[in-house]
């Protein structure tokens, strides 16, 4: 029989037994929140506190919390077939249908999917597929992967090694070889690096369409067109990491649609299931798939136990159906515009806000104060008044970032901005 634990007991057990991901190891009072329920844009914790999930948790709960349809689909699929392997060409219907659905949604000729369980695995898969592609093509020296400063690509050893935020790489002080970094907005720096290293040594360039965990950086308008041209000129594969930006987050189904650029490979995760199941993948172009088929003599020696997990894929299909039926991509664009306007209004009000930026429902508020970081203080005050947002302080930054569910209403967005205003006011009172 399940026992009822007191809040204090749960806090103590958490502190003793749960090593949290991307969290301080030591906490004075245990976990900041123990969540028990979610509904729409709101989360409720064990004390009964209600907060707006201004981050869609980890940029992923795109359709919002508490959509019971996804649980129903998951149960139906688990009752019928909870798991079967996708190795050795074994397959299952939800994986086949999701791969087909994604082919219809993805930009250009990205039409074949390799499934994973999340973003880090997707990026590692892309690096390995890119390197294997060059082996098949006889260009064995093409091993190096170039990524951008301030990028975040996850925490598997390959994904960490490609992450431009240095603190993540320094965490272990030992990374995978053949990863290189360029300034996040400079196409000249990329060209120079390719020339210095030798184009015949470069396998791929990976980029987020909008840098998320690195502080929400939107690239200059022609950046990706130029990147595509440089990759074509030097025969380098272009990989986009749409782990955050995919599935409507930026006001288009995939963010590369803003720039009319089609990559050779595209990684996704998070929004594909809105976090209701663990799923990710890397999509490859028709050309690469064809070349793999023509040149490959053996087996793709890369696969996760849960690649093509039937329940996760069934949840993904239902999640995409909801995004489409409820026009959540259009809502993301419209509410995103209002979010950005609201943040700009706050910038006009508070002298220490130096920049407000974003694309769709992905936004950042850059702050500055001599001698102290403000973003963590704003995030703390926001949580007190009922809003969850996140501080980015890595690489000398001081930014509060936002990515509320795509289902957010106009009224809820106003609430979010009002709560944020209150939190910022509190911080202003403290520092002046
Ligand atoms: N790529 C990007 C752009 C991300 O933001 C993240 C996670 O936040 C990842 C990859 C890693 O995904 P996961 O945490 O699912 O491994």
TrEMBL record:
- Name the coiled-coil region(s): 406-432
Q: Which domain of life is it from?
A: Bacteria
- Cross-referenced Pfam families: Aminotran_3 (PF00202)
Q: Does the keyword Coiled coil apply?
A: yes
Which CDD domains does the entry link to?
OAT_like
Q: Which GO molecular function annotation, any one, does this entry have?
A: transaminase activity
* KW Transferase (keyword) present: yes
Keyword set for this entry? Aminotransferase, Coiled coil, Pyridoxal phosphate, Transferase
Q: Cross-referenced SUPFAM superfamilies, in alphabetical order? A: PLP-dependent transferases
Q: Which family does it belong to?
A: Belongs to the class-III pyridoxal-phosphate-dependent aminotransferase family.
The protein's matches in PANTHER family, at most eight in alphabetical order, are given as: AMINOTRANSFERASE, AMINOTRANSFERASE CLASS-III
Name the record gives this protein: Aspartate aminotransferase family protein
Native organism taxonomy: Bacteria, Bacillati, Bacillota, Bacilli, Bacillales
